[in-house]
Amino acid sequence: MKALVIGGGGADHAVTAKLARSMAVTTAYTAPGNYGTHLVGANVNIPPTDPESLAEWARDNQIDLTIVNDPVALAFGAVDVFQSQGLRIFGPTQSAARLESDKGWAKSLLERHGIPTPPGRQFHRLDEAEAYLGTVAYPLVIKSSQTDSPTNVVVARHQVSALEAIRAVLDPVRRGPTSSVLIEGYVEGEECSVLVVTDGETTRVLGTAEVYTSAAAMSDAAITPSMGVISPTRGMNDPSEEVMDRIINPLLAGLAAEGAPYMGVLTARVMLTRGGPVALSFKTRFSDPEAQAILLRWQDDLYIIADAVLDRALKDLAPFKWSNDVTCGVVVASEGYPHEVETGYGILGLSETGNSTTIFHNGTRDPYQKPVGLVTPAYDRTSTGRLGRPGGISSWLIPSRSRSKQLDAQATRVSRDPYSQVVTAAGRVLTVVGQGKTLADARQHAYRAVERISFTGCWSRSDIGEEPMGGGR
């Protein structure tokens, strides 16, 4: 069987790697992928914003199953396009994916169906949002509709920071045609994520995780998508049963009642308060970085599970199995993240990790362009040229860069280590995940690997897995 994953981040690398280990999968493709996905499968150079071309490629290459894990592709209706052409695709339809892509609609859906969530209002006009800020108590949480922004959620503890946050999105000079902000109340408790898979009739838990959501310890400003993760949740009983009863099951029932039945993976980020779990947000896919931590512990065959979901046969499968290990993931980021960063710096040390560590690529790329057409094949370690790569130097085309026509010195190091040729391509570059029998062991494995990784401007938080997070969001 041939499988395709639509996406190019760390969670997509984790999903592709999981599929590649399936006994049913002969080749795993990723579109557009990154350097990590090309090590476990083959990359397809088609953007997630072009579902028609993706469907055409999948049909022409006889792809048996596609998993769409990119939020932009979901918002563009990739599932609907594939289904209209009779292609098997795993993920929610465009209408159901609004749960992630349209924060205002998601908030109203939760309120209509009595699902606990902080009170909130959505605004499209700057003047209306500014007036509202003068009538509410602080702190507030401000969520931008710009889902691709690394600072699309901000905790504002006073009106000045709140004004700054909404003006960054709704300023008439910079706003887009669909720009909006959701302003909602701040809640205290322990935050956690619960991942589930559903075929529309049966829902099963994939795992739980805790995400570190700021660029610095105890930060109460910008909430970044992720700087670290541990799985399972700690210091508390397994919250998944209560989250299922109070949030996920009513949510799925509400979506179905409103004509948007949900199939696929759903990530619920919730706050565990004294009064019970409160829904904060949803990802209509394997979320980053939860997927990197949970998929290493989850022992079932992803292809078989996804195939069963499409056949509405999830109820017929045996109970899921997990290892007893704990995982701790540390994000290695570019200097300046979560704001503007420079990319293209060579990365060293990726092949020097131990057996208890797995590295997932969030934002990496090959510094060279190979003249092989649409598909970049997986790296072949059995036949290498002078630079430790297939075909030797004749197979490379060195691109020019604005600041220099030469690649970073680290990237051009002549070595038989294939990883010495990978360069940074985004703010979040890698997720380094350690596994161990205890959280302390997992954390130690992760940070030992992080210490060996180097590129210009690399940095990470030093406290992932160290202390309970707490303190709200």
What does this protein structure show overall?
The protein is α+β, with helices and mostly antiparallel strands and 473 residues long. 25% of the residues lie in helices and 23% in strands. It has 4 domains: 90 residues, Rossmann fold; 67 residues, 2-Layer Sandwich (Dna Ligase, domain 1), CATH 3.30.1490; 134 residues, 2-Layer Sandwich (D-amino Acid Aminotransferase, Chain A, domain 1); 125 residues, Alpha-Beta Complex (Glycinamide Ribonucleotide Synthetase, Chain A, domain 4), CATH 3.90.600.10. It has an 8-stranded antiparallel sheet with strand order 15-14-10-11-13-16-21-17. The C terminus is likely disordered.
Question: What amount of the residues lies in strands?
Answer: 15-25%
> Shape from CA axes?
globular
Rounded mean pLDDT score: 85
Poorly predicted regions are 369-373, 380-417, 469-473
The portion of residues assigned to helices is 25-40%
Number of strands: 21
Q: Cα-atom Rg, whole angstroms?
A: 22 Å
* Alpha-beta content class: alpha+beta
Q: Would you tell me which CATH topology of the largest domain applies?
A: D-amino Acid Aminotransferase, Chain A, domain 1
Count of DSSP-assigned helices? 13
* Total tally of structural domains: 4
Strand order of the largest sheet: 15-14-10-11-13-16-21-17
